[in-house]
Description:
The chain is α+β, with helices and mostly antiparallel strands. The chain has four helices and seven strands, in the order ααββαββαβββ. About 6% of the residues have low confidence.
Amino acid sequence: MTFDEFLRKRLFDPLGMVDTTFYPSEAQRARLVTAYAKNKDTGQLEPVPPRPEFGPRDRPPQGNGGLYSTAPDYTRFCQMLLGRGVCAGRRYLSEDAVRELTISRTGTLPTGFFQSEAYGRRGGHYTWGLGTCVLRQPHEGAAEALSAGQRRPPQ
């Protein structure tokens, strides 16, 4: 079984994450929101088409990224993590597995996503090129996600 098949069978399908995949279909790609970036010359926001290499089938699935998902799907995933592996009364990951996912591997070394407490007490936040930010605060039982759909939102 391939990595993407394993995730689909053991995690995505059981969680009801029907739009999470390494290889988005044409129908899924058609539902992507229009992203915007500031034109360096004019200062105006302009549409940015999706990258053509997004989700190529000749690229093997990777554990470090490359998933296409939707807000409802990612919400289910965050609910499962906040439930320490349980979502809607069903266990998907052991508590030990979730604990392993959240252990700091860098000690006091100021690297990675945990350099500042500005986004919560060591919960972790992630930002990507077009303004998507995910903040998990397991100690508070909360997770938030924001997708601005543009590079560098206006000041």
